[in-house]
Amino acid sequence: MKIIDSVEDVEFKAFPGGDLFSVLVGRHESTGSSKHHTVAIVNLPEGVESDEHFHKEREESYFIITGSGSAVIDGKVFPVQRGSLVYTKPNEKHKFVNEGKEEFKYLIITSPVWIPEDSHSY
C-alpha cells in the first residue's frame, strides 16, 4: 500500500529539456512495488514540451491536472486542458506541449508497469 497526501508535496526529477517528472506508484519498493501499472506525474513549466517518444508494449492514459497545451500524437495536434484525458496505444508516438502561462501538470497511468527500456525516441 502507498498513500500520497498531496501531489503538491511530490519531489520532481528534472530532465534536460526542462520537464519535471516523478513516479508515484511503480515497480520499486519505494514507489509501492506495483506489478501491473505505473502512475507518474509530470510538470511542464511555461514554454516546455516533453520529449517525443513511443512504447512498444505499454499503453498510457494522461489526465491533465492543471494548465493547458497540446497533445501531439502521431503528428496530430490535439488541444488539452485541465480535466482532459488522453489515451495512447503502443507504438503511437506522443508528446505534450505547454502553451499556456502556467504550469502544465498531468498524471500518467501506464500498463503494464513502466520500464525505461520501453521508452523509445525517434
Account of the 3D structure:
- By secondary structure, the chain is mostly beta strands.
- It has one domain: Jelly Rolls (Sandwich).
- The chain has no helices and eleven strands.
- The chain has a six-stranded antiparallel sheet, with no helix packed on it.
- The model has no long low-confidence stretch (mean pLDDT 94).
Features:
single chain, 122 residues, mainly beta, Jelly Rolls, 6-stranded antiparallel beta sheet, 3-stranded antiparallel beta sheet, 46% strand, globular
Helix-strand layout with pairing:
Blueprint: E1 13-14, E2 20-25, E3 38-44, E4 53-54, E5 59-66, E6 68-73, E7 76-81, E8 85-88, E9 94-98, E10 104-111, E11 120-121
Antiparallel strand pairs: 1-2, 2-3, 3-10, 4-11, 5-8, 5-10, 6-7, 6-9
Q: What share of residues is helical?
A: under 10%
Q: State the major sheet.
A: 6 strands, antiparallel
Poorly predicted segments: none
Q: Strand order of the main beta sheet, please?
A: 1-2-3-10-5-8
What overall form do the CA principal axes indicate? globular
> In percent terms, what proportion of residues is strand?
over 45%
CATH topology: Jelly Rolls
Class, according to the CATH hierarchy? Mainly Beta
| Structural class by sheet pairing and helices | mainly beta
Total count of strands: 11
> SSE order in H/E notation?
EEEEEEEEEEE
Domains, number: 1
What's the rounded overall pLDDT mean? 94
* CATH H-level homologous superfamily name: Jelly Rolls
Oligomer category = single chain
- Number of helices, where a helix is a run of at least 4 consecutive DSSP H or I residues: 0
Based on CA atoms alone, the radius of gyration comes out at: 14 Å
